Amino acid sequence: MLFDVPWNVIVLQLFFGLALGSIFVLLASGLSIIYGLLDIVNFAHGTFAMLGAYAVFVAISLSGSFLIGIVSAIVVVGLIGVVIEFILLKPLYGKDPLLPLLLTFGLSVAIPDLIKIIFGLIGKPINYPEALSGATVLGPLILPNYRLFIIFFTLAVLISLWLFLKKSDLGMIIRASTRDSLMVQVLGVNVSRIWTIGFAIGIGLAALAGAVAVPTMAATPDMGVDMTMVAFVVTVVGGLGSLGGAIVGGLFIGLVVAIASFIAGEYATVSMYFCMAVILLIRPRGLFGEVGRE
Amino acid sequence: MKDPEDKRTILQDVELKPKATIVWGTALVLLVLPFIISAPLATEILIWGIFGLGFNLLLGYTGVLSFGHAAYFGLGAYSAGLALRYWKASLWTSLLIAVAAAVLLACFIGALAIKRRGVYFAMISLAFGQMLYFLALSPLKHITRGEDGLTHIPVINLFSISLNKPIPLYYFVFIITIGMLYLTWRILQSPFGKLLQAFRENEERAKACGFNTTLVKFFSLVISAFYAGLAGALNTIYLGYVPLTTLFWLTSGTMVMMTILGGKGTFSGPLIGVGVFLFLQNTISVFTPRWEIFVGAIFVLIILLFPAGIVGTIRDKYSTHKMKKLRREAGFPAARSE
Predict the structure, then answer these.
(1) Does residue B293 contact residue A112 with C-beta atoms inside 8 Å?
(2) B contact residues 230-249, partner A, Cβ 8 Å cutoff
(3) Among A273, A281, A293, which would you mutate to test the B interface (most chain B Cβ atoms within 10 Å of its Cβ)?
(4) What angle do CA B204, B205, B210 make, to 5 degrees?
(5) Chain centroid, CA B274 distance in Å
(6) Tell me, what DSSP letter sits at residue A91?
(7) Is pTM, for the whole model, over 0.80?
(8) Given A91, A113, A281, which is nearest B292 (Cβ)?
(9) B297 to chain A: closest CA residue
């Protein structure tokens, strides 16, 4: 017992926080990869997560399978990312660094309205997939299966991302381009294509976050802004352009929001901004940020 | 472009010192504006114009992109609204309170974040803006009335003229706008204004010259929050209530779009951007409630094709033309890559 709250309730809240944090991790790691590689802060990041959520909705209403929904979210939104990078962002490289940011902001204004025209203003609820509904009883704890799935799914995505970046040739080139893209180009790699791939991976991670999160909420046209905001707060807390920072920051903010919504529900959203302000005060470059990048 | 240095020197002649004729020409257009378009729309243009003048000082002249200016605008709007509704404050007191609140908030956010790099500051300012939005939405609901917005704001009289009639209200806002235009002009003429532009052009060099860049950026933020707070308070008087959307991120975003549309770093750019934007918005929303898709798409096209904005593009064309003429007169061969 802590302040008259039974321990298992506290652990359950922390568990919820971990699941929420996992979604934040997926969001923020995508943002981090794009920033690291292309030096672009993607203001439409949450908008792509929203598109991922709608992709799941469409795939489920067509096929009935949640798995197909997740796969189609990452494929469809990843391809949209490729097109956007190729047509809209490429012309802006090497110009004022604020232009790509402003362009993605314009997208975040326009795309939700497009979704409103296609799917209507009202959100689309999505049920928990059959196999993942229910709960697992673990001693005094009752853990909802879907949250367990979110945590393990995120873990699997992160491990494969890590293996991809560390072990594959393409991953090595991406890491090298993050360090020094000019040098990579000199060595005969088509860096322009690497940027497209990197952008698609980052957007794909955002779409995954939206896809995994959507059964716990509903797909609404305006959910994107809130998700962009979460990605930003996590990035400021964890440190810009650092994958480790995205992971630790995401879990940390997830726990903070879960605890705040348990103690004082109306402060749940505000709590993460307080967190950000405190981090800015005591460690401006974020938990894992490199000096000079902030 | 063969010789960028050359162009920059001429640009400074053309625009960085806004001529008095531009200032008074703008004032003259605004004087007759309510007889050309409807008075409420004209008032809205002035209010957003004041907001834009301040925002442009920060974005256009200092080169700092804030995505959270709704925080200052909304805080000004709410402070004025609360003062008028609960304390029955006078017009001038409520304006003063609004401006003071916005400036204090800017001091706080500036102290926390102004040192950060450009994109980082954009993210942080947006996050703080949303923090205020969510504070007003739910934890402070008992004061701000949450989603409904703050209503029941008494009608204000100035020298026994009621400000809820369109034309008197317009000219009240007009006089304040002229004051702010004059203030902006003086700021840009002052050594401080020159310093802002020096930082935008080359921060490292200004630093090397011994100027405290952080402090100057901080003051630029605070001054622009002053404009935003004032505009917010005027918006409260204009609408007679405070909608929660004054704090919403899209309000900040709209300001960014207006300034870029008109031309950041040009004196009359924000006013023209505000006018064109509000006109577009009003026109499109007659046909469809989904105006954001058009506005967003137009903004994307502007970023791709005319990042200098309306006034900026005209200015660039004019200065290129002027440079060619100067070269011809001086007997230089025409630049090859123009």
Answers:
(1) no
(2) 249
(3) A273
(4) 95
(5) 9
(6) G
(7) yes
(8) A113
(9) A110
Digits of tens for pLDDT over chain A (294 positions)? 566 777 778 888 888 888 889 999 999 999 988 888 888 888 899 999 999 999 999 988 888 888 888 898 899 999 999 999 988 888 888 787 788 888 999 999 889 888 888 888 887 887 777 777 777 777 777 778 888 888 989 999 999 999 998 888 888 888 888 888 888 888 888 888 888 988 999 999 999 999 998 888 888 888 888 888 889 889 888 887 778 888 888 999 998 888 888 887 778 888 888 888 888 777 777 777 766 555
**Residues B69 and B122 sit within 8 Å (Cβ to Cβ):** no
Q: Which residue on chain A is closest to B290 by alpha carbon?
A: A113
Contact status of A169 with chain B (Cβ, < 8 Å): no
Domain boundaries, chain B: 19-248
Looking at the complex, report in whole angstroms how far the Cα of residue A110 sits from the nearest Cα belonging to chain B.
Answer: 4
How far is Cα B87 from Cα B94, in angstroms, rounded to an integer?
A: 9
- List CB contacts of A202: < 8 A, sequence separation 6 or more: A30, A31, A32, A33, A34, A37, A42, A45, A81
Give every CB contact of residue B51 below 8 A, 6+ residues apart in sequence: B69, B73, B227, B228, B231, B232, B255, B274
B265 touches A at CB < 8 Å: no
**Minimal Cα–Cα distance from A166 to chain B, Å?**
28
Of the candidates A97, A225, A232, the beta carbon closest to that of B123 is on: A232
**Residue A30 contacts by C-beta under 8 Å, 6 or more apart in sequence?**
A45, A201, A202, A203, A204, A205, A206, A209, A231
Query: Is the interface score ipTM higher than 0.95?
Result: no
Contact yes or no for B127 and A236 at CB 8 A: yes
CB distance B300–A269 less than 8 Å?
no
**Residue A76, C-beta contacts closer than 8 angstroms, at least 6 positions apart:** A51, A55, A207
